[in-house]
Design brief:
The chain is of the alpha+beta class. About 50% of the residues lie in helices and about 15% in strands. The chain binds flavin-adenine dinucleotide.
Length: about 375
Amino acid sequence: LAGARDLVGDLVGDRAAEWDRAGLIPEEVLRTLSGRGLLCAGVPEASGGLGASSAANGEFTAFVGSRCSSLRSVMTSQGMAAWTIQRLGSAQQHAEYLPKLAGGQLAAVAFSEPEAGSDLSAMTTTIERHDDTVIVRGQKVWTTAAHYADMIVVVGRYGSGAAAVVVPASAPGVTVTRVAQPSGCRAAGHANVTLDEVRLPATAVLGGGQPLMLLVTTALAYGRISVAWGCVGILRACLDAARGHARTRTQFGKRLADHQLVARHLANLLTSEQIATRVCEHASRCWDEGSPEMVVATVLAKQVSAVQAAQGAATAVQVLGSAAAHEGHVVERAYRDAKLMELIEGSTEICELILADHAVSMPA
Ligand code: FAD
């Protein structure tokens, strides 16, 4: 990932607030990063990717997240699409799709439906096989990056089990409608996707016939670790802004940092950033070592980091006072973006349920 931070620094510059206001990231920015393999840096070199470790990709994701959570969200979607193809696809499908994702194309992943949010077992989208063809029917909602995507990895029912299918966004029957004015990550290209009798070759089906929840867990694992590292980035941006402000602003004759109640906020922010970093490092180590703990460590990282980011962003707003009350301020964006991280990829409550199950089933 040499040079990746400089490139992101140059491409984002001070434009994140402008993109947030416009609700759009310029397409050439996304194409440039995708073309360098940076939106899914974990894709193996043999498949045209950079072969980054989870730890290296995670630190890079945090860096992007500290600059622009919308861009980091697009990166999470691209990485999740690549991971799903890697895990569920055949060697032929790896050769077909992965070089494209590491070479300039853009992707999204669609699970959620109007009646299937936290409870994805209520999913009704179907992928129906007819000889060499499949027909996809359904309605997906809130698909991050779908507005930009060339391909959408759609999860649906397939026979008595489930599958994912790679749907070109330009295929007849696909309609992508932007979600109007999301409260956070506003430039991440969230869209609802209607799939009306979309006919595709059966070779587009990944992992046909698996149990739905197994497939969902596999795909979401990447989304969770990526969001967790993105939250570390939010916390780092908030910590930087809060300490910079507290060092320079004077009230009651001394720096804000020298008022003990403000100093406590700074201590809490640093604590949040350190806690989130450590759980993410632990989860990435599990990924890089192929540890059986990987799934639980990833859920833990996502749950802890999202909660810490939402609390930390609120704390940073408190430290900055009216300085953070301007739309587009880095801390104001962080406050809106971080809250959404508690809802997605398994909300805080859903992650807590998974962790509670794990706690109950642990050997004495
Ligand atoms: P609900 O499921 O209706 O839940 C509402 C509340 O009830 C939550 O607090 C939840 O935790 C709680 N709750 C629900 N069930 C339980 C329970 N059993 N016990 C305790 N509490 C419970 N989807 C995609 O497929 N792809 C994407 O790329 C994507 N990106 C998104 C980006 C953003 C910014 C947002 C907001 C959403 C995105 N989603 C995406 C959808 C997201 O995954 C869902 O919003 C999420 O799964 C929660 O579903 P829901 O919003 O329908 O809330």
